[in-house]
Design goal:
The complex is a heterodimer of chains A (231) and B (121). Chain A has 231 residues and is mainly alpha-helical. Chain A is 68% helix and 0% strand. Chain A has helices at 2-30, 37-44, 53-61, 63-83, 99-122, 130-146, 158-180, 193-217. Chain B has 121 residues and is an all-alpha fold. Chain B has one domain: Helix Hairpins, CATH 1.10.287. Chain B is built from 4 helices and no strands. Classes of the chains: A mainly alpha (231), B mainly alpha (121). At the A-B interface, α1, α2, α3, α4 and α6 of A face α1, α2 and α3 of B.
């Protein structure tokens, strides 16, 4: 009886919350915006060094967000790795051997690496960029991890650490260097904008791929013979 | 009422559903899924409202798109971290629900207290 009442209260709260949110959204939709952000972005786009407005916002106008985001990713990866029970993140015993998987790997992994490179390059003037490319890179890594492809860089060591922090470190160095050179924090120097953005995007792609892959591999594995079923 | 606004209201509904699921469901994986549904709803509201253009001429607004892109990447990595934590919790306790809800669940349906499979998906 008490449980039913609690469920009812929760449902009522959720319906009230949804209604309030709907009213707010409707209200915002009817009010004309005070600041025309698209116009402001379009006006300054030629100075941003890239032609795609989303990339311009991500890596120039609001690059602070992106810097913090890759910081969050690195922290998540470090926490995930420290939770892993297995001493190596890439345990040979956990590899599968499957003919279909091998065939898929041979066709897909090179293709995926190429797509990741294309997405990274396309990001400067059309939809694409570091995040999409990093996600494709991580997916290629997952496919390789599921097959028997040994990936020594996932073992705890200098390569794993370098790969994880590379994006964040390069981004931070650029930010600090621009601050010490007399510009504001993260204000790229004149003429260097495109080079810096493409460099940062390239290292970001690598780090995002590594972070996602490390989190995939970091899942604690129960030992053989234990009664726990893998969830 | 434009098509873009429809996306925003779809996001509102997802938010409500996610909140309800997050509170009511006890299995940790279901809680995580509900939380993700809520997050997706918020992304939909952000993008839908921005595309609607606030009464002005509708067009692509890159700022919310960039924010949502950032949000998606953070959400994916946070979900992966949560999965790692849930698996660790399951390994340590053999339970897939949190402590207090495990107790109330046991009281309610008078299950075998030694069962390690309570709340299995």
């Amino acid at each position: 009886m008490k449980a039913w009442f609690a469920t009812f209260v929760v449902l009522a709260v959720c319906v009230a919350f949804t209604g309030l949110l709907a009213v707010t959204v409707w209200d915002i939709a009817q009010t004309p915006a005070l600041v025309q952000l698209p116009a402001m972005v379009a006006e300054k786009l030629s100075e941003s060094g890239v032609k795609n407005p989303v990339t311009a916002v991500l890596l120039n106008f609001r690059s602070y967000d992106t810097l913090l985001e890759i910081g969050v990713l690195v922290i998540a990866a470090m926490t995930g790795i420290s939770m892993a029970r297995t001493p190596t993140l890439e345990d040979p015993e956990l590899r599968t051997s499957n003919e279909l998987l091998f065939a898929l790997q041979r066709w897909f992994v090179p293709l995926m690496l190429m797509v990741a490179g294309y997405l990274l390059w396309a990001g400067s003037d059309r939809p694409g960029g570091a995040f999409q490319a990093g996600a494709v890179l991580a997916a290629a890594g997952v496919l390789m991890r599921l097959g028997a492809r040994p990936m020594n860089f996932l073992r705890p060591g200098i390569l794993l650490r370098l790969g994880l922090v590379l994006g964040f470190a390069v981004f931070l160095v650029v930010a600090l260097a621009s601050a010490f050179a007399g510009e504001a924090f993260l204000d790229y120097p004149e003429g260097w904008t495109k080079v810096l953005i493409v460099t940062i995007e390239a290292v970001l792609t690598l780090s995002i791929g590594m972070v996602l892959l490390a989190l995939f591999v970091a899942g604690p594995v129960n030992e053989y013979g234990e009664e726990d079923d893998p969830v | 009422m434009s098509a873009h606004l429809l996306y925003a209201f779809g996001g509102v509904v997802l938010c409500g559903m996610g909140l309800g699921g997050f509170i009511l469901l006890s299995h940790l994986l279901r809680k995580l899924l509900a939380f993700n549904i809520m997050g997706s709803g918020i992304f939909l509201i952000l993008v839908g409202l921005a595309q609607h253009g606030g009464g002005a001429e509708p067009g692509m607004d890159p700022v919310p798109q960039a924010l949502v892109l950032t949000g998606i990447v953070v959400a994916v990595s946070a979900t992966a971290l949560a999965l790692v934590l849930i698996r660790r919790y399951y390994y340590l306790t053999g339970q897939t629900v949190l402590e207090s809800s495990a107790e109330s669940g046991r009281r309610n349906n008078d299950d075998d207290p030694g069962s390690r499979k309570d709340g299995a998906l």
